[in-house]
Each structure stands twice: as C-alpha cells, then as structure tokens.
Amino acid sequence: MKLLLDTANLEDIRYFNEYFPIVGVTTNPTILSREGGDIVAHLREIRKIIGDDKELHVQVTERTYEGIIEEAKAIVYLLGNNTYVKIPATDVGIKATRYLSSKGYSITMTAILSPSQAMLASNAGAAYVAPYVSRLENICDDGIEIVSEIQKMFNVSKTETQIIAASFKTVRQVLNVALAGAGAATVCSEVMTNLLNHSTTDTSIAGFYADWKKSFGDSTLRELIAKSN
Ligand code: E4P
Questions:
Q1: CB–CB of 183/162 below 8 Å?
Q2: Residue 160 and residue 157: Cα distance in Å, rounded?
Q3: What is the pLDDT of residue 103?
Q4: What is the greatest pairwise CA distance in the chain?
C-alpha cells in the first residue's frame, strides 16, 4: 500500500520525504490554515521539496461548479504534473469530477463516508476516493469495514479508481486498511512516525552495539574489512 504524508508542515515534509518511502503529500483547507502566511508560496515550496514525480493533493475551496473547475485548473497550473485536485463528495463535486476527469485532470474525491459515495466518485472518473477512517469511527461506524466494502466493490467493477484511505489516529487502522486492499493511505506525521517506532527495536539495536563494542571496541566492521585488505 502506497503511503502519503497528510500535512503541510515544511519541516515534516522535508524529513519524511528524505527518510520514508512516501509517494506524495496530501493537504486540505484545515491543514493549510495551520500554516497561514503566503499559502501559494507555501504550496510551491511543498512541490519543490517533494519534486515533480511525487503526488501533491490539494483541495478546492470554491463551492460552485464553475468555481471548482476554474480553481482546479489554477491549482494544476501552479503545481504541475502529479497534482491531484481534491473535490468533496457533493452533487456539485461529482459534476465537476465528471468534467475534469474527462479533460484529463486527476481527481481525489474527498470526505467519503460511505461505499455509495465511493461508487458515484468512481463512476464520475475520480482517480482516488478518500474514505475517512477515524471520522467514521468517531461516530461509532466501522471505518475499516467501509474501506473493505469499497475495495470489494472496486475489485468487482474493475474500476481504475483507487482508495486513498485517510483520517487515521492509530497504526492499527493503517494496517487494517492495507489488509483490506486499499491502494494508498495518507497519514499525519505522528502516525507516520509510529509506523516505524518500536521500543524493542531500540533495545535490540542498543544490545547489538554494546556487544560489538565489548569485543571490537570502536572499530566498525567496515574499518576491519579495510584493514584486512
Ligand atoms: C484527507 O483527505 C483528509 O483531509 C484528512 O486525512 C482528514 O484527516 P482528519 O480526520 O484527521 O482531519
């Protein structure tokens, strides 16, 4: 399952882009509002950090059909190839997705809370649908089951639309959407960090270094190989 970073924090994007195998960055108006300032320059900087080959998902803020179409064009003009325009799952959003996808734009239909919304988004030509796992679980629904149903439906229909599961609070939720067959997930910096962190990994590594040092001091294996040649 592909992983994307769900943040607009430049420091986090630089770090995870360098160390983690992310295929892109996702934002939404709430995430961008946390950064403030010149948000257009900020989006340009995100594109500069991740490069032209990675995905950058940016949500429209316009609400009318014409407004969404024009804003989508402006977003892609600003940020170039591999830019995905996020459009919320409304009747106007579906209409805009039908038009924009027919013109070759990559659309991520967002705020997906049900399999029927995902079906409409897929039929409208969306490249991705973004079901919100935690927001479903917050209202006592089963976010993982919804993702699983969407994936089964997509498998049956053989659509090219992929799931980019979103809204995670835990590592377990991320693993469960991967097991449900989602093509991608976008996770915040904290959850991304927790995908890797494990206290037993830390103690295991510390033990390896301590045992090595007892026998070979500060020499590394690379140094010993160089000396023996
Ligand atoms: C992605 O499309 C969503 O904007 C995002 O993942 C929502 O996450 P949240 O529910 O933690 O705000």
A1: yes
A2: 9
A3: 98
A4: 72
Take residue 162 and report the two structure tokens written for it: 């992929």
Helix 39-50 with 65-79: angle, nearest 10 deg: 50
Tokens of residue 21, six digits? 């195998």
Q: Are 5 and 28 in contact (CB under 8 A)?
A: no
C-alpha dist (Å) from residue 182 to 43, 72, 144: 27, 25, 10
Model pLDDT for residues 189-223, shown as the tens digit of each residue: 999 999 999 999 999 999 999 999 999 999 999 99
Token pair belonging to 135: 């927001």
Ligand 1 atom 5: the closest Cα is on which residue?
Answer: 167
Comparing CA positions, the residue from 125, 57, 116 lying closest to residue 96 is 125
CB atoms within 10 A of CB 47: 19
Is the pTM higher than 0.90? The answer reads: yes
Cα angle 225, 227, 229 (rounded to 5 degrees) comes to 75
- Give 39-76 pLDDT, tens digit per residue: 999 999 999 999 999 999 999 999 999 999 999 999 99
* Main-chain dihedrals φ then ψ at residue 24, nearest 5 degrees: 170, -175
182: its two tokens: 């989602």
Residue pair 49/24 in contact (Cβ under 8 Å)? The answer is no
Catalytic residue flag (residue 86): yes
Structure tokens at 69: 């179409």
CA of 170 to the centre of ligand 1 (A): 13
Q: Whose CA is nearest to atom 11 of ligand 1?
A: 167
On whether the CB atoms of residues 75 and 57 are closer than 8 A, the answer is: no
